[in-house]
Amino acid sequence: MAAVRGSGVLDASQVRIRGADGEVVGAGFLVAPDLVCTCAHVVGQARGPASVPDPAAGSVDLDFPLVEGRPAARARVVSWRHGGHDVALLRLEAPVAGTRQAPLVDGTSVWGHTFRALGYPFGADHGIWASGVLRAGQGSGWVQMEVRGSGPAVVGGFSGSPVWDDAQDGVVGMTVAAHQGDRTAYLLPSADLVDGRMLRPRCPFQGLAPFAEDGAEFFHGRDDDIRRVFGAVLRRPVTLVVGPSGCGKSSLVRAGVLPKARGAGMDVSELRAVPGARAAAVLARALSDLLDPAPGEVERLARAEELARLLEAGRDVPAELRARLLARPGAAPAGHLLFVDQLEEYAVGAPDDARELFRLLAALAGREGGMLLRVVATGRPGSLEALVTPETSELAGEAVEFLAALAGDALERAVTEPVAAEPGLWFEPGLPQRIVADAGDAPGRMTLVQFALTRLWERRSRSMLTHAAYDELGGVAGALVGYADESLDALTDRERRSARRLLVQLARPEGDGFVRRPTRIGELPPELASAARELAPGKLVVLSPAPDGSGEIVDLAHESLTRLWPRLRQWLTDTREFRTWQEQLRTDLRRWEAHGREAARLLGGTDLAEAQRRLAGHPDDTTPEETDYVRLSTRAARRGTRIRRTAVAALAALTALAVVLALLAWQGLQRTEEQLRVQAAGLLAQAADDMPGGEPATALQLALAARSTKQTAKTAEALLRQYVRHTDLLHAYPSVWEGNVSGMDATPDGRTLVVAARPAGGGDRYVFTLVTGALDGPIRTRRLGGEVQARYESALSPDGRLFAVSSPDSIRLWHLDSPEHSETLELPVREMPQDVGSSVDFSSDSHRLLRTLTDHTMACHNGTQPCVPAFADAWEVPSGRRLTVAADLLPRTGVDAVAFTGDADTVAMGYSDPKSPQLTVKELATGRTLYTAGPPADAHDEMSAALKAGGELVVWTEGNRTYSRPLGRTPGAVTELPALTARQGSEASGAYDQYSPGLVSDSDTPGGYADVGLLELRTGRYFTTRLPNAGNAPGAHGAVAAAPAPRGGLVVLVPIGNSLMVVGAGPAGTERFQDGGTSDGEYALAPDRSAIARLTSDSLQVLDVSRTHRRSVALPADKDGARVSWTADGRWIVVWRRDDGLFRAYAAADLGRSVDLPRLLKKDVVSDSLVGLQGSEMALLGSDGTVARLDAATGAVLTPAFSAQENPDDVDRMRDTFGEGRIVPRPGHPGQAAVVSRAASTNGEIGLWDLRTQKRFTAPLHGLAVGTSSTQQHWHGDTLVFSADGTRLAVKQGDGRIPVWDVDAGKQLPDPVTVPTLTNLVGFGPDGTLLTWGAKTLTVHDPAHGTAVTAEVKPVYSIDVNTANAAITADGRLLFEDGERARVLDLRPDAQFRALCAAAARDYTPAERRLLPDGTPSRAPCA
C-alpha cells in the first residue's frame, strides 16, 4: 500500500462515458489529474459506427457522477490499445475541480482480497456497486473476480470501471470482461494500464542529493517541522535550523520553508560558505548581484570585492545594505529571506571567519520600515559554540530551531507519500515497513533511505518497487555501499589511486568519526581535480560554484559515505593521524595569513618538528601553500634560536602576566558556560515545541527544563505554550506503556485502568497494560500477558479485579492480581460471518460476565441475505462457570447493544431499527420481558434510547429535552438533564457524556488541547476542563476516564500516545446565551469581570461567569445593530446605536428596571464610542469629535457636547474617514480620558482630556495615523490601552506599530512593538509587557528587550480576544470571556513554572536524559 487512503478518492476519480446520443455506455477513472483510463471498446461504442475507420480519433463526452454537481467534460484519445490490451487513455481539455486521481496498486498478488466496483448496466445510469473476492491471474493476463452472495453481478456497463482492492486501499485494475449469466468477471491488472508515453515515469526520490524547491511535491513527513520553522522565520529575523548530520536540514529549508516563503510574497536568495573565503566576501558575493547586477563576470567580482571591503571597514554597513536591498526596484513587499546552507562546515573549518559571518548576518537581518530581511541557516549542534560570541549569544540562543531525525510514522510517510503522488507507481505490500525497520536509528537514515529508494526505482518491475530488487541491493545500507563500490571499480588502477587520495581529502576527522570537507578544485593537484570530474557524473562527489565566484568546489555527495562505505571508512581510518595534523596545519596557515603573515604565527618547536616529518611522509598530499608555510617556519625557527637567550630575562614579567591571563581565562570560562546554558535552554525549548503530540509529559518536562536552565524569551514561550495546554493538570506520567494508545477501560472510581496500545511496527497487534495509582501516585504498571491480533471488545470489572477481551472466536479473562496469564472461557462452536459485532460486559457486582455476537454484515443490514441469529453467553466469574441464558433472550436480528443492568440477573438491550426507539429489560435466565424504557414507543428515530454506564442507565431525548433513568429489575426515577449541544461521546465508564462546544479542538495540529464539558448522566451535574490531546499526531485517541475527586469536582484520566495525563474538572453551570452563542451579537465584559452582556437583534442578555444565572430582556425590533456598554461600577448596562445615539440604561441586577436616555449629540452626528468613567458616569464620543457626559442611572446630562479635537471645523474629512473614533478612560484619574476622533486619527492626534472641566490635562500626543476600529468590525476592541496606573498609553497605529507613551511627559518610549494589521490590542501585562491577540495567538511583547512570546489561545467560539471581553489584573493574570466560559491565564512565567511544577514535578526518565543537550543542569527541573 503506497499510502493510507479512503474510498472518497475512488468516488472522486469515477468517470461515466457517454455516447454521442448522451446515453451512458461504460465507465472510466482518472489515473492523472487530466488523464482518464477506460476500455478501448467503450470508446469505440461511445463514438459509434462512424468511428470504425479510426476509432482513436476525435473526442468523447464524459462526466464525474460522484463529484458534487456531476461536472461534464470532453476528452480526446491519446493512447489506444497500448501493449495490445483493451485500454484507451483520454486527455481532458483541462483538469476538473473536485476530482482526484485514483491510486494504482499491485494487481498481481491479490488472491482473497475483497473488491468493489461501480458500473452502469442497462437501466442503471446512476450506477450500481458490485463487490466480491479477487482470485488469481489467467493465461490471458486478466485477473478473475467473483461476486459474492446475492448482490449485483458484474455485467455489461461495468467495462472500464476501476476495481478497488479493500486490502491495499487502491485500484488494482480495470474491469474488461464478464461471463454472461455468471457471477465471474475479469480485470486487467493496473500495471497493464499505464502507457509510459502518456504517464512518463518520474523518480520521486533524491538519491544522495538534498531536496530542492522543485522537488517539494515529493518531500513528506516534515509537515509539522515546516510549519514550525516557517513560523519561526516569520517571527524573528534570524533562524538557525540545528540538527545532527543527515537529518535533512537543507531539504527541510529548500523543499519546505523556501516555497512557503515565496508563497508568502518574499524574495529568496542563498549562499554557502566554504573554508578559505573571507566572511565579508562570502556575503558580498551573494548580495552584490541583487543590489546592482553587473553585465560581466569580471565586473561582478570587482563589485563584490568592493562591497566586501566596505563590510569589513564599517559596522554600520550591514544596516545600510539591508535598507538598499529591501528598497531596490522590484523588491518583494513581504521582505527578503537569505538562506545560508551548511554553516557548520564554515564554522569548523574557519571558526573565526564563521563568527564574523554570523555577526554580519545578525547585523544584516532586521526590519526596515514595514519590510523585514530574514536569515535562515542550517548547522549541527556542535557548530553553535564556534559561532557564538558575547555579542551574538542571546540572538543565537533565541534563534535555534532543533530538527530531529525522521523516525516512525513520519519516516514511513516520507517513504510512501512520494510513491502515492506518482501515478502508476507502487510498493509491493510490506516493503515500506521493511525499509523503515531496516533504517532503524542509523545516523543520516533519511539519506540512506532516499538513496535506496532511488536505486529501487531504477530497478522497478512493471511499475512496482519489489522485495526482490530490495534484496538484490542489500537493503538500506547495502544500496549505498554497493553503488559506491561499483563506481570505484569502474575506474582504472591509476584513477582509483587518485580517487582514494581525493576522497580522503574531502573528509576530516571529528570526534570518533569523520565529516565532509568541501574543497576548491583549484587547490587540488591536477590528478585529483581530474579524479573529481571522473567521479562527479556518478554522484559520489558533487561539483558546485564557489560562493566567492573563484571557480568550483568539490564535496562528498553525502556524509553518510564516511560512515557506511567500508572501503572509504578504512582509508579514512588509515590516514586519520595525518589528516588530523593537516587540518590543524590549515587552521594555523589561515590564522597566519589573516594576521598579515606575522612571524609569531609561524610554526615552532615540536609543532614544526612534526610538520617536517609529516611533509616528508606525504609529499603528494599537501598543497604548495602548506609546503611553503612549513619551509618559512623552518627558516624563522633558525633565526629564533639566536633570540631565545634574550627572552630569559623577561621570565619574571611573564610570570606576572600569567596570573592576569589566568583570571581572564576564568572569566572567559564563565562566559562560555553562560553561553552553553543559553544554547542548551534554547534547544530544550525547541525540543519541547517539537515533541510529538503523543508525548505530552515529555514535552512538558523539556519546557520546564528549558526554563530552569536559563530564563530567556524562548524558554518563556515554550513554558507558556505548555501552561496554556495544561491549565487543569494534576499529574503527568510519561512512557507508561509501550506503543501508542488505542483504547482504555476504567473502573468507576478511576483507580484501575487497562490501556490497549499498538506497539511500534506491531501492525494490528494490541497489548494491554494494567495501570493503578494514577490518581494520587505513585503510578504502578504491569503488562498483561499475551496480545490480541484482531478486532476486539473489552471490559473491566467495576471492582478492578478482572479484565475480559472478546473477539469473534474467543473470550479471554485476566485476573489482575496476577495478570501475566489469561484463561480462555468455554464457548460453544458457532458459525458466524466475518463481519460480526461483539459486546462484553461485567455485572455491577463484578460477579458475572456477558458476551454477545450479532451479524453486522451489509448483506444482513440491506436484507439481501438472511442474518445469522444473535447469540449471548454468560459466565460466573472468576470461577468461569457457564450460566443459563434464555435461548430467546435476544431477537434474531436488530440488536444494537446489550449489557447488564444494575441488577445482575437482568440485561438491557437496544435496537438498531429506528422503529424500535425503546430499550427492553429482560431476565437473563428466562428471557422474560420486565419492562421497556426510553422515549415513547412511537417516537422519531432521533429519540432512540442509548445504554450508558455499562447498562445501568438509559438516556434519551424528546424534542429539546434530554432524560436519564437508572435500570435494574425495576426502573428508577427519571432525571431531566441540561440541554447541551456538541456532544462528542462518552468517557470510558459511560457514566459521563463528553461535550466539546464551539471551536475548541485543534485536531489538525499535533500537541494541542480541547476545552470540554463532562455531564454526569445520573445527576445532570456539569463539569468543565481542558484536556491535552495529540491532535493529528500518532497516539491521538479520544478515550478519557472520569471519576469523582475527593474534594469535589472530577479527576479525568487522559491517555495520549504512551503518556497518561491526569487533569481536574470543576463544576460549572449550564446556562448559555440563547440564539447562538457564537460570534454573532455584541459582547461587553463587566468592569469587575463578574458577568458578560450580550446584545442580539432582539434581546439584551446577561450571564454570570459561573454560568448559573442568565437574565434577559426583549428589545424593540428597530434596535438591530445596537451596541452595549457597562458603567464603571457595573450596575448599569447601556444600549445604544451609532445612528440614533443612546437608547436606554438597564439595571444589571434587574433588567426589568431601566432609564430612558437623552440624545447628547447633534442630529446628524454618529455615535462612535461610549465608555464608563466613574460610578454611573459615562462619556460619549461623536463622529464630529464632540464629547458629552451623562449619568446613566438618572439620565441626567453632566456635560453638554464639546469639541475634543484640535481643529473643531475639520468635519468634511472626518465624514469621509472609514472607521470610528475612540475614547478610553484613564485608570486612577477620575474624569480623564484619551480621545481620538475620526479626523484626529488620520493625523495621529491623541487628545488627553479632563472631561469634567472640558480642558486638556496635558498637550496632545502626536504620531502616525492611529488605527481605528472598523465600523463593521467594532468587536475588535480599542486601539488605545492605558496601563493599570494610567501613566503609560499604548496606541495601535495604522501601520501595525504599537508605540507606548509616557502620558505625563508626553514622550514616546523607545522600541515600539510591531504586529500584523488585524491584531487586537489587549492590554499591559506584568513588568511592562504588552499583550496582543490575533489569528488565535496570544503574544506577550517585551518592548524593553525587543522580544515576544507567543502561544495559541483558542476561544471556544470564534470571538476575538480584545479590550471588550478581556482584562488584565494587577497581579498579572489575563481574564477573558469566550462565549462558553471565563478563562484565566497567569501571564507571569514564574507563576506558570510553579503551577506546572506543582502538578508535574519529577525527575527525568532515561529516555528524556538522552535528549538533554550539554549545558543542562543534571538535577530535576523542579528541584
Brief description of this entry?
Helix content is about 25%, strand content about 30%. It contains 31 helices and 83 strands.
Keywords, please?
1423 residues, Thrombin, subunit H, eight-stranded antiparallel sheet, six-stranded antiparallel beta barrel, 31 helices, 26% helix, disordered N terminus, WD40/YVTN_repeat-like_dom_sf, nSTAND1, Novel STAND NTPase 1 domain-containing protein
Structural class: alpha+beta
Task: Please name the CATH topology of the largest domain.
Answer: Methylamine Dehydrogenase, Chain H
CATH architecture of the largest domain: 7 Propeller
Count helical runs.
31
CATH top level of the largest domain?
Answer: Mainly Beta
Mean pLDDT: 83
Write up what this structure looks like:
This protein is of the alpha+beta class. The protein folds into five domains: 8-192, Beta Barrel (Thrombin, subunit H); 222-405, Rossmann fold (3-Layer(aba) Sandwich); 483-635, no CATH class; 790-975, Methanol Dehydrogenase, Chain A, CATH 2.140.10.30; 1082-1380, Methylamine Dehydrogenase, Chain H, CATH 2.130.10. It contains 31 helices and 83 strands. Strands 26, 47, 48, 49, 50, 51, 52 and 53 form an eight-stranded antiparallel sheet that branches. It has a six-stranded antiparallel β-barrel with strand order 1-2-3-6-5-4. Helix 22 (605-617) packs antiparallel against helix 23 (624-647). The radius of gyration is 37 Å and the shape is globular. Residues 1-6, 999-1005, 1212-1217 and 1269-1275 have low confidence and may be disordered.
List the helices and strands and how they pair.
Blueprint (H helix, E strand, L loop, with lengths): L7 H6 E5 L5 E9 L2 E4 L1 H8 L11 E5 L8 E9 L7 E5 L21 E6 L8 E10 L5 E5 L14 E4 L4 E9 L5 E6 L33 H13 L2 E5 L6 H15 L3 E5 L7 H13 L5 H17 L3 H11 L8 E5 L2 H7 L1 H14 L1 E3 L2 E9 L1 H7 L5 H7 E3 L5 H14 L4 E2 L3 H9 L5 H14 L5 E2 L1 H7 L1 H15 L3 H13 L1 E4 L2 E4 L2 E2 L5 H10 L5 E5 L6 E5 L3 H5 L1 H9 L1 H19 L10 H13 L6 H24 L3 H40 L5 H14 L3 H13 L3 E5 L6 E7 L5 E7 L8 E6 L7 E4 L9 E4 L5 E6 L2 E6 L6 E3 L11 E7 L5 E8 L2 H5 L8 E6 L4 E2 L12 E6 L5 E6 L7 E5 L5 E5 L12 E3 L4 E6 L2 E6 L8 E3 L5 E4 L5 E4 L12 E9 L5 E8 L11 E4 L5 E7 L2 E9 ...
Parallel strand pairs: 13-17, 13-18, 14-15, 15-17, 19-20
Antiparallel strand pairs: 1-2, 1-4, 2-3, 3-6, 4-5, 5-6, 7-8, 7-10, 8-9, 9-12, 10-11, 11-12, 16-17, 21-22, 23-25, 24-25, 26-53, 27-28, 28-29, 29-30, 31-32, 32-33, 33-34, 35-36, 36-37, 37-38, 39-40, 40-41, 41-42, 43-44, 44-45, 45-46, 47-48, 48-49, 49-50, 50-53, 51-52, 52-53, 54-55, 55-56, ...
Helix pairs in contact: 3-4, 5-6, 5-9, 7-9, 8-9, 8-10, 11-24, 12-13, 14-16, 15-16, 17-18, 22-23, 24-25, 24-26, 25-26, 25-30, 26-30
